[in-house]
Amino acid sequence: MKEYLKPTKMCDSDNVQLREKAKDIIKGAETPKEAALRIFYYTRDQIRFGLDYPDKKASQTLKKRMGFCITKCNLQIALLRTIDIPARCHYVHLTKESLKALTPRFMYNKLPEAIVHIWCECYLSGNWLACEALLDEEYYKGLLKMGAFTSEQVPTIDWDGETNLILVKHRVVKDIDTFSSRDDAMSEGLKRGDEMPMTN
């Protein structure tokens, strides 16, 4: 499990400010599950959704308090690692349609048919659990209203710490792999020839 606990260049879980924030988030938590849940809801609700450059360190996303799938996932992993909960990232390809409601037509038409998406997984009670913290409640309700997806496709954005929460599973067309960090995902993906430039 060491590789899922160590800091990396992008997942800088050894950053002082990030470690202090993690301690503050989980103050009073009595179990790893409760601590992981607090970090999930902090990442989901306090780091608002917004497009940004993907090459942000976790500490930079924490400071900016805004991110998208890559940067929010990276931050969530870093926060979990600071409290000794193993965490990793899971990469998939989604259908192009995932971005239709969010992208101007001239841009949407130029997108590849498959785009890359990433979520966080943490290790609790002997199991790897998906805990995707991408959408806060306000943004989730807005996307429902826009028709980006239906309540049947994404029935909840809440996580219970015991089962998998994957918001985009209805759009997944290819499971790429799990990686210990974003750094590893990019280097391994390039070696294998996986296309990882387009994200949501």
Describe the protein's topology.
Blueprint lengths: L15 H10 L6 H15 L1 E2 L8 H7 L1 E2 L1 H14 L4 E9 L9 H4 L5 E11 L2 E4 L6 H10 L25 E8 L2 H11 L8
Parallel strand pairs: 1-2
Antiparallel strand pairs: 3-4, 3-6, 4-5
Tell me which oligomeric state these chains represent: single chain
Sheet with most strands: strand arrangement: 5-4-3-6
Count of DSSP H/I helices:
7
- Sheet having the most strands: 4 strands, antiparallel
Q: Which structural class matches the secondary elements?
A: alpha+beta
- Roughly how many Å is the radius of gyration? 16 Å
What are the secondary-structure elements, in order, as H or E? HHEHEHEHEEHEH
Question: Care to describe what's here?
Answer:
- It is a single chain.
- By secondary structure, the protein is of the alpha+beta class.
- The protein has helices at 16-25, 32-46, 58-64, 69-82, 105-108, 137-146, 182-192, and strands spanning 48-49, 66-67, 87-95, 114-124, 127-130, 172-179.
- It has a 4-stranded antiparallel β-sheet. A two-stranded parallel sheet has the order 1-2.
- Helix 3 (58-64) links the parallel strand 1 (48-49) and strand 2 (66-67).
- Helix 1 crosses helix 4 (69-82), helix 2 runs antiparallel to helix 4 and helix 3 (58-64) packs across helix 4 (69-82).
- The longest helix has 15 residues, at 32-46.
- The protein is globular, with a radius of gyration of 16 Å.
